[in-house]
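Re: that backbone. Tokens:
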């Protein structure tokens, strides 16, 4: 079994065919012998938080597609444990979940900014040994998460920026086309 820790970024290999994960970056939140749980961090939708939460209609908080599983579940990542209690620390500067109402209140009071919190509908999940099998198949590249990647100002660039974090040898990979025959 591969030893993953919370806060690992799973970067889809450049030619992954699965449309659910093509050019995606998943932040691993839990990894246990019984399975794994993560949130896709780079798929911005056109939806806003108020489209799902009635108390948030006047907030301009974008919602991301967190993954193909549990589309009726809203998750959030943030950098503000001082305002949102109960979150799980994934790494320094990145927390998963916590008191949802405190998060909404902080947004209404403008105590927390959109670049300090992100909301995700759905998640990525793997059954026992499934993620390890995908790693053996070289479906994912991994790096340790950083707040500058997870809360990147341009979510469409997260995959490329994550690839570049792997080192100079990977910089050309960031510009590969989806279909290698176009190369």
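Recovered sequence:
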């Amino acid at each position: 079994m591969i030893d993953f820790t919370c806060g690992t970024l799973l970067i889809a290999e450049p030619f992954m065919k699965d449309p659910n994960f093509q050019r995606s970056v998943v932040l691993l939140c839990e990894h246990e012998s019984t399975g794994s749980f993560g949130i896709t961090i780079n798929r911005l939708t056109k939806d806003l938080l108020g489209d799902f939460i009635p108390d948030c209609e006047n907030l301009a908080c974008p919602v991301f597609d967190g993954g193909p599983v549990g589309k009726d579940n809203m998750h959030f990542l943030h950098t503000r444990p001082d305002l949102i209690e109960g979150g799980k620390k994934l790494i320094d500067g990145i927390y998963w979940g916590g008191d949802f109402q405190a998060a909404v209140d902080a947004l209404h009071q403008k105590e927390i900014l959109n670049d300090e919190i992100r909301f995700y509908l759905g998640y990525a999940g793997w059954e026992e040994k499934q993620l390890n099998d995908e790693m053996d198949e070289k479906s994912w590249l991994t790096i340790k998460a950083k707040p500058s990647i997870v809360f990147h100002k341009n979510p469409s660039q997260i995959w490329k920026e994550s690839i570049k974090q792997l080192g100079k040898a990977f910089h050309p990979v960031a510009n590969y086309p989806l279909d290698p025959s176009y190369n």
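The beta strands are 8-12, 25-32, 35-40, 44-48, 62-65, 69-78, 88-91, 94-96, 117-127, 140-144. The domain at 8-182 is CATH 3.40.1740.10 (VC0467-like).
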